Amino acid sequence: MTYPSNRPPDRPTDAAAGIEVTSDFERFAQRNDIFTRAFWDDRIRSRKTDAFFASYRMEATPRRGDGFTQRDFALRNASWLISDLISDRGSESGEREGFQAAIRNDTPVAPMQQAVEDPTRMAEEIKRIANFFGADLCGITEMDDRWLYASRVDTRDFSETPNDLPEGMTSVIVMGHQMEEDLVATYPSALAGAATGREYSHEAAIVMQMAAYIRNLGYEATASMNDTGLVIPYAVKAGLGEYARNQMVITPEFGPRLRFSKIFTNLPLTHDLPQQMGVRAFCDICTKCADACPVKALPYGPQRLAARMSQPSRAYENGHPTRRNALASGSSCRRTAPSACGSAPSTGTSQNGITGSGSGSPCPRGASWRFGLTASAAGAKSQPIGGRPPRDTGPQSHDFHHAAP
Asked: Mean per-residue pLDDT for 73-83?
């Protein structure tokens, strides 16, 4: 007699995406991400973390120096405005939309359903519509429950609460939103926060419009930013990039310099495949991000199986974090040391919910993946995948690096 395994079954595209799931796999509870822990976990929370989050609510303390003047903080906080309006509207019910709860449906599902005879053509149309609304990249992958959070967060008391989606979701549409390169290079300044906030505001509008379009066709569509599930494995599975040592997805077009949003839907769509681009091979021989990390939270060495997230100290050996996974316990990739990263919140950002290092600014591929000799030798393919040409932002006429008065 055989008994069913508690281990989730492998998916056919796992190997191509560099994902290995072991018998002790556990879905991740969002309450334990480093940003949420900064509100309830005394090992992470401090006066500095409180001041960091409060500074986005008009409580910034400008000081002399490029990137930290009142004008710089004004630009940063204004950049977050649209995202803040969306995330704050459900605060009374403990739903921080886009961050600790999915974005609520602002339009109903149309009673008449548009027939989809060719899922491949519909997938192409979805990518065109994403382009039209302003997304810089778009890929589509299968719905995979393994990457959904085991629970979401009630922001009234930071307790766990059910993480529900409509039944029957079959696909995840993943969109990439590039951040302004010159501002990203100024981390940890307030100006760099403007690059992050601008894209959160952009992606909030884009993902809501995309979801509304799909619902107007008569299909379910749940708009999601940092909430509901881990975006990195979905982005890798959708062929947008590869998972790197810096704990982010590196894309051919923008390196790690982008945010991701996603839509869960039952619209019939053909799925993209993971792509081998040479990123993983490059990270095997490059430690620039780990060397540059001020709190040494990024991993050295070869890949290891993840330690349990509840015991982050296991990630250290000989004073350095080992190269384990930030996706979930029991899967194989690379893993950061979240407590160390959380000790210096102003020096690190994330690629939608996974701790990282300054949006990849020390990474040699921080601007884009330049397909040169090294990448070609690593087996990278030079054609762009899963998206559209980079958005033409025009001449950079604004002086973002304000000098102190």
From this structure: 92
